[in-house]
Design brief:
- There is one protein chain.
- By secondary structure, this protein is mainly β.
- It has two domains: about 5-105, Ribosomal Protein L25, Chain P; about 110-190, Ribosomal protein L25, C-terminal domain (RNA Polymerase Alpha Subunit, Chain A, domain 2, Beta Complex), CATH 2.170.120.
- The protein contains three helices and 13 strands.
- The strands form three sheets. It has a six-stranded mixed barrel with strand order 1-3-2-6-5-4.
- It is elongated.
- The N and C termini lie far apart (about 130 Å).
- About 15% of the residues are buried.
């Protein structure tokens, strides 16, 4: 198994000013903690060269690369440990590494690490329009450092519409135990989503009239001519030439004057 090599220095200066000086040199603060064959290790402040750390990580194993770590302390001399990169913090805007956590381990004792899942093949259900849905991208596994797999392959070819895989369906190497629940869903092949059909709304009987239009059956406004066959509105003036109810006929319009 390929093991990266990394040398770091013990950090004695603390505070924001000291940290700014480190970052100006391409260095970042960090801490090393955990256990070794000799016992537990008290958290040790360290100074890490980010470029050296990236060069020490296996491009495939990445965080799970076993590091042959050397801590250089001016007072206590050098200390050699086996460690894993546990975590690193990144600046939210500049995306620069700002802090590193190294976890010292005993190579002969199991450790817990996240191992990525790699999905291969095309589900049978996809031919019928099914959709692949991934619920989990990595597994939390427990094993001796040398037994940790680089990745777990998941062949989704047998999946038909409605089928799914759980953690219990995955094949793990000998000596490797999943810390993720065995009932956790990993991937499924879902039925295609039905397309929504939008039908235009038909003009129904009794629908609201257009803006400004009088509703059906409503009496005409005062002074307006009645509709054909309808009665005039109360108080409306009679049409010219027709007598009002119980009254005299209205005066006829005057004849135009003759030209001389």
């Amino acid at each position: 198994m390929e093991v990266g090599k990394l040398t770091v220095n013990a950090r004695t200066n603390t505070g924001k000013g000291a940290v700014r000086q480190l970052r100006a040199k391409g260095l970042v603060p960090g801490v090393c903690y955990g256990a070794s064959p000799d016992g537990k290790i008290a958290p040790t402040p360290i100074v890490v060269d980010v470029k050296a750390l990236r060069a020490a990580l296996d491009p495939v194993r990445k965080h799970n690369t076993l590091l042959d770590l050397t801590i250089v302390d001016e007072k206590q001399g050098q200390r050699k440990l086996t460690a894993l990169l546990r975590e690193f913090q990144v600046h939210p805007i500049r995306r620069e590494v700002t802090h590193v956590d190294l976890y010292a381990i005993d190579p002969e004792k199991p450790v817990v690490a996240d191992v990525p899942l790699e999905f291969t093949g095309k589900p049978k259900g996809a031919i019928d329009g099914g959709q692949i849905r991934i619920a989990l991208r990595a597994l939390s596994l427990k094993a001796r450092p040398a037994d940790l797999p680089v990745k777990i392959e998941v062949d989704v070819s047998p999946l038909e519409i409605g089928d799914n895989y759980h953690v219990s369906d995955l094949k793990l190497p000998a000596g490797v135990v999943s810390m993720t629940s065995m009932h956790q869903a990993v991937v499924s092949c879902a039925a295609p989503e039905a397309e929504e059909v939008v039908t235009p709304a038909a003009t129904a009987e009794g629908a609201a009239p257009a803006e400004g239009a009088a509703p059906a059956g409503a009496a005409p406004a005062a002074g307006a001519a009645p509709a054909a066959g309808g009665k005039p509105a109360a108080g409306a003036a009679p049409a010219a030439g027709k007598p009002a109810a119980g009254g005299k006929p209205a005066a006829a319009p005057a004849a135009p004057a003759k030209k001389k």
